[in-house]
Design a protein that fits this description.
The longest helix is centred in the middle third of the chain and has 79 residues, at about 1-80. The protein has one helix and no strands. The protein is an all-alpha fold. It is about 100% helix and about 0% strand. The chain has one domain (about 1-80).
């Protein structure tokens, strides 16, 4: 009987160890997923900032082009006059 009890205790300990290992593995995966999510968020923010900068640059270029066209038109008018 004692031998059977000892065997049972050993099995329970083995199961507990396995469960602990699984829990540790699951925790590791969760931490990895959290890190990946944080990285993805950071990348998203960078992309958003880049987009905004590009849009600003495009607006500035358009304004410059408009100003240049206006200047050309003024010069042409002055030449005509």
């Amino acid at each position: 009987m004692q031998w059977a009890q000892g065997e049972q205790q050993q099995q329970q300990q083995d199961q507990q160890q396995q469960q602990q290992l699984l829990l540790q593995a699951a925790l590791g995966l969760l931490k990895g997923a959290a890190t990946a999510a944080a990285s993805a968020t950071a990348i998203q923010q960078q992309l958003h900032q880049q987009q905004q900068q590009q849009q600003q640059q495009q607006r500035q270029q358009q304004q410059q082009q408009q100003q240049q066209q206006q200047q050309r038109q003024q010069q042409q008018q002055q030449l005509r006059n």
